[in-house]
Amino acid sequence: MLIASGVYLAASVGLAAWLLPAGREQPPFPFPPPQQKPIWKAGSATPEERTLALRRARVWTPTDVAAADVSANPPDPAGTLSDPIVRCRYLDEPAHGTTTKFDCVLRDGEVVKVKYGFTGEIHAEVAASRLLSALGFGADRMFVIRRVRCYGCVRTPFYTAWVFDYVHARERLMQSVPGDSYTDFEWVAVERRFDGSTIRAEGHEGWAWYELEPIDASRGANRAERDALRLAAMIIAHWDNKASNQRLVCLAAEGDGPCPNPFAYIQDLGATFGPNKMDLARWKAAPIWADAARCTVSLKSFPYHGGTFPDAQISEAGRQLMARQLAALSDRQMAALFTAARFPEFHDGKGDGADVNAWVQAFRDKVRQIVDRSPCVS
Q1: Are 250 and 261 in contact, with CB atoms under 8 Å apart?
Q2: How far apart are CA 244 and CA 241, in angstroms?
Q3: What value does the mean pLDDT of the chain take?
Q4: Contact 266, 132 (CB under 8 A)
Q5: In sequence order, what are the residues at sequence separation of 6 or more whose Cβ sits closer than 8 angstroms to the Cβ of residue 20?
Q6: In this structure, what are the phi and psi dihedrals at residue 273, rounded to the nearest 5 degrees?
Q7: Total-model pTM
Q8: Helix (H) or strand (E) holding 308
Q9: Which one, of 139, 166, 133, lies nearest residue 63 by Cα?
Q10: Beta strands in 51-167 (DSSP E)
Q11: Which of 9, 65, 91, 305 is the most exposed place for a label (fewest CB within 10 A)?
Q12: What is the per-residue pLDDT for 97?
């Protein structure tokens, strides 16, 4: 047992030496303490308060689709993500999921999530989030950044966190990283959360798609808006739809009473345009309608047999709402979207997956399935 412990210790020390960042410079500004992400009622909402908020939730707001600039990063009023080199300080948090990522503190204390490495989730999430925002649905704001300089980052922070947690050496590793050392990450996605305070109750994280149906149309999203959101999920193939991949937020300031304007949206859009994330052939082959005559949609042919997304019959009002939004998107906008999300770069400039026009035509085919058809009859 002592020998095994010694081997683990020696291995962790050696690995730590290799992982330590090579860059050294004093940060040009001090990093303040990290700002806390807002949680409604400080995370103490009751299940009943969450249920009430979900019953009153909106899922869509009117937008000028034709004017949406899907090629550019979202607005950055503070300018913290607009520098040629975005500088931040590593925030040591437990690793979750499978995407290579880490939390980082910007110069004003804002905490953002940096997603790095060769993974289709980065490109898919950028494209899907900008598409949904243009159509009027909620989505986290995804920035494509040429270079992030992370002070205190080892060379592979995500996998390092897993490995050193396993050998119980993470604290020693972080203590060995000098404060003026850094690692540069190129062509990353930086995530800023959608506005609002997360509504979280014990035993509930996010919301499941089967929870859309009980929404009170007189207070929250009507049937057309809920159906339009379902069609949006079908377009991008949002099969990884466990409850934690959707978020419920309160858009108003904190108060003693019920949340006056809750909003429900998809928060994790990485597993889209597939199902194998950025797989043009399979995304193109996935139909919008499970039964076109009855206007039913289904994700049961995707992984997890549909997940939390039950088969649903789309109303004519929902089809028309989505058709109006989609018809306003131009081919120029869609080409700009796939180009800005760096679809060709993910496919190394080779094959149909690197052809922006092929993605645009596949998208147009999905639009035609919704727009150019007979009315949906309940």
Answers
A1: yes
A2: 8
A3: 90
A4: yes
A5: 154, 155, 176, 177, 181
A6: 55, 45
A7: 0.91
A8: none
A9: 133
A10: 86-91, 101-105, 111-115, 141-151
A11: 305
A12: 74
- pLDDT reported for residue 1: 45
Tell me what percent of the residues of the chain surpass a pLDDT of 90. Answer: 77
Q: Look at residue 16 and tell me if it is in a domain.
A: no
**Does residue 134 have a pLDDT over 60?**
yes
Residue 26 in domain: no
**Token pair recorded at residue 275:** 């199902």
Pick from 98, 106, 95, 96: nearest CA to 34: 106
Report whether pLDDT(266) > 90: yes
| Whether the Cβ atoms of residue 131 and residue 70 lie closer than 8 Å to each other | yes
With a cut of 50, say whether residue 2 has pLDDT above it: no
CA–CA distance, 350 with 280 (Å, rounded to integer): 12
* Longest distance between any two alpha carbons in the chain, whole Å: 73
- pLDDT confidence of 17, banded at 50, 70, 90? low
Q: Give the domain extent around 106.
A: 39-371
By mean pLDDT, which of 7-21, 44-58, 217-231, 247-261 is the weakest? Answer: 7-21
Report which of residues 10 and 179 the model is more confident about: 179
> 309 in a domain, yes or no?
yes
What is the C-alpha to C-alpha distance for residues 44 and 303, in angstroms, rounded to an integer?
34
- Tally the domains of the chain: 1
Q: How sure is the predictor about 112, in pLDDT bands with cuts at 50, 70 and 90?
A: very high
Token pair belonging to 197: 């305070």
Instruction: Give CB contacts under 8 A, 24+ apart, made by 372-377.
Output: 373/292, 373/319, 375/316, 375/319, 376/295, 376/313, 376/314, 376/315, 376/316, 376/318, 376/319, 377/295, 377/316
Six token digits for residue 185: 């990450």
Q: Is residue 23 part of a domain?
A: no
In this prediction, residue 179 has a pLDDT band, given cuts at 50, 70 and 90, of confident
Structure-block tokens of residue 233: 């999920």
Query: Helix, strand or coil for residue 317?
Result: helix
339 Cβ neighbours under 8 A, 6+ residues apart = 71, 356
Sign of CA dihedral 248, 254, 256, 257: negative
List the structure tokens of 235: 């377009």
Residue type, 140: D
